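Consider the following assembly input.
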Amino acid sequence: MMQHYPILAIMTYFLGAFLIVIFGKNRTVRNAVGFLATAVPLCLLITLVKPVMMGGDIIAYWMGGRVPAGGYAIGIALEVDALSLFFGLLVATAVFAAMLYSFSYMSHDDNEPQYYTLFLMLCGGVMGLVLSGDLFNMFIMVEILTFAAVALTAFRNSVFGALEAAFKYLVVGSIGSSCILAGTIMLYAQAHTLNFAQLSAMIPGNLNLATTVAYALLFIGFCTKAFLVPFHPLAADAHGAAPAPVSVLISGVLTKSGLYGIIRLTYILFRTMNLGTVQFWLVFLGSVSMFVCVTMALAQHDFKRLLAFHSISQIGYVLTAAGLATALGVSAGLYHAMNHTLFKGLLFLCAGAVLHETGTTDLDKLGGLSKKMPHTTVLFLVGAFSISGIPPFNGFASKWLIYQAAYQKGVESGNIGFLLVTICCLVTSTLTLASFVKVTQSVFFGQLPKEYENVREVSFGMRLAMGLLALLCIVTGLFPGLVTTFLTEPAARAVFGANHYINAMMGAGYAESFGLADMLPVSFYSAGVWSPISWLCLLMIMLLAVAIVAVSSKYDQVSALAKTAAAAEAAAVAGPRYGSGSPAEGKYELFFGGEESVYSQVGGDDMFWGFKHNWRHYFSFMHNLHSGIVNDYALWAVIALALAMLYAMIIL
Amino acid sequence: MTIVMDGLRYLAYILIFPGFLFCFLTGMLLCGIDRKLVARMQKRIGPPILQPFYDFFKLLGKETIVPAAANRTVFLLAPLVGLAAQVVLQLFIPVFHFNAFRGVADVIVILYLLLIPALSVILGAASSGSPYAGVGLSREMVTVLSVELPLVLVLLAVAKTVGNALGTGLCFSLTDIVNYQIANGSLLTRLSMLPAAAAMLLIIPGETGSHPFDAAEAETEICEGMLAEYSGAPLAVYKLSHAVKLLTMTSLFVALFLGGIGGGVMTLLSGLSPAAAGAIGLVLEILILFLLCVVLVAVCVSLLHAVTARLRIEQLFKYYWTVVTGLAAVSVVLAWYGL
Amino acid sequence: MILINYLASFFLIVLGLYCIVTKYDLLKSVIGLSIIDYGVNLLIITIGFNPGGTAPIFSFGELNPESFFVDPIPQALTLTSIVIGACVTAMSLSLVIKIREMYGTTDTHEIRRLRG
């Protein structure tokens, strides 16, 4: 029975999509179908955790029962090892939360059935991609998800830039998809099979020019899906225009599919990760993505664009960690990938909540929403602390492991470059914090503009989805031991234990018949001991402090006093005591900066003047570079492709 | 039973030593000494050394005003969170032989914990809705950014030097770093660590926001910036936080570079019984730590305060990312090649 | 014979990329995408082609080790890929129509509201 779960998980999404096309006119039916179609795969995958993650099983499903014969895999397979299941779980969780959120978020749009159809198609595409064991099947899933993502980006086509973003994404995304197809077919020409297990047995020993080019093509193809550095403007454009739940899917789910592809390709399919040059390639790409995107994020004025750049920055962390090719590094990278899905999903949903209530995400226009939307503010702060790596939230746990992995790798290899990577990671983390301080100040704190006086808290359904993700952020931060034991370490073992995977699919002894040995002994040595005791102490102290305050109940009296004082003061200012003029033209306003409703927001562009002034040449250079012309982005893609091919030919 | 004992022990750590009480007394004393020293350097008489205590208790009795534009919860909670994080940070820094939390005292944890007090001030300021606070918090964030890079480099340099010596390649544990120094002499005596120590000396005033790196709370210019709207008890808590930060940063310096001094104390007491030696040693070590902190405050906070004028925020950033980072980087490179 | 096919597919892919990179018109970009697609399709077909082979259509028992036929899998892949290519074209053309309605032009240098 167990081996049917993966195909059921994929097909539930597609079935849901088709059912909504047929019966989607009725709101209740539509929501019920949407809920079930996202909840069922999540449950199915959770039941797989025990055998796959803890038991180390690999679930193989051959469509139509066509099992391999004579050492050749003819049928189409679904192959679920710990790595696939790990990404599958991420996808299912993020999708479930986004679906919950959509119910009320999208209720004001027309064409709702089409939205849910595309939404579920996208989910099915990603789920199919990560669970698939067949290269061409993977390509088809890539096309499905690209299509659905483009259509969803342009879904609100009256939104500023939505069409433009969708078109750019379609052009560069199609170039990426064509790369994947060309790479797939070149591998087929060499190995006459499309099955992952068989390919990963045959390819590593038989690298030639054709497979090398295929490697570069597939790599660039998956880079476009993960929006790594030459492709990052597309992510920013697409996120800015898409509805918030779709942004969650694009950043939390779609980029993960690209990452999954890269890890699968480099570690298992080609087994190139024991080469220092390939490690350098991945780490370099990851570090550049990390740094460039975080600086781009600092310069943004739009909430969602800013989040989009951060998204790629965090993907850079994951790729860097995965490129270290140590067990600790891979485990840390996957941990961060999981955390990224959770906190970035949460942040995008918060941005969506702000957009839903105020109608804008422009940082220069917003302000002071914390009084109107207190729950959203708290949830946003949880997400912001998580992404900035503030202990005890989950971002800290994974970043901490990444620093250790990078530094340890540097010490082991004696290469000072890895030290630079560690430093780059740490500085990027602080820059991330800086830009989230900017968002916090510009959106939730500061002064409330007049036109947002009537803003209300978002509906319960939306808060429930955000709360779910926030809870997961805190839980995975407080109990990192559970996460590493049950999720990331099995996945890292699967990454390094490709032979087990091949043999499970193709029959025992198949991998050894090609003379393949597993890459590295897997060790999860980490320099420090992660112990939540310190965080429990922190919580204790905070509780103590709050308790003291509550017992003394001083603040309550004081606040009552303060209120009357403030009211009296406001009345005084508004009253005729300071002359005949209205407060708007009163000359005393200056002295009541915090009290009066003078709109003097510090935020947006001038927020980090001291920092930007020193980097002004860099920022203006980057601004000019991201010209918004689709030809330029296509040119970057072509250059990246050419460089990747060249580099692959030199090193392999 | 042991759980209860452990619980009580941790409670004692948190509340008495090296937790709240110790931080409160020592931090405030350091603050008072700093003010006195600056005054003497400027040929003033200056306030009594206990003045910070008086200020603190007086502020506690004052009325707390929450601005109308502020978010009450965050505005009032932020100082407490900041203070709590600051005290937790102090728990992680070993006092020579004494460790409240062995094993978790990791330099990266400390790096991130150092962010929390700054972040709490920033959030508190942001929630107040005041434009002065807005300017102040943007500067504070840039200050944090500026200090972060050299601080990372200093910590990595120390971690690498000790790691080399211990043969593990890297040593992130602050406990091990101090123990190594107790056994083999202070790191400050090494040539390769001198630039890092100098960088750290320049980082301390940046972290604590004293002259010339106090653009974030420039009193004369933006009315104390982030604290502009605070009054009464929350302000007292911030003042306390700031005082504890002085202690934390200087004792971090002691742990990183001067840990070896603790070794001498124990050899002096070698004739006594272990229990007595432990108790007397601890008291002596606390005294030594305090004296060292006073010296450090005198050198890098008071002296700089007395002789320099405030830097503009972009000058501050540039200074940290060029001069101080350069110093720390020299140390890292030297340490990396085992010099 | 086969070599010409490979060269042609390579040429088509490069031509498509060239078109996308240098032509400042949305429609021409779409044409470029299609050309890349054709190039890849030609590549797939060429890989599966065996000179002199028969069509891969057999009934039960007819297949024996001596049968010489072209590889059927690439042909199936090509069919899928053609369908996908048509979808890409349709989708991008519909986007172009909407963009034209909204921006009043199809010049890529005008359509750059999102940048920086």
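Helices of chain C lie at 2-22, 26-48, 72-103. Ask yourself how this observation constrains the way the partners meet.
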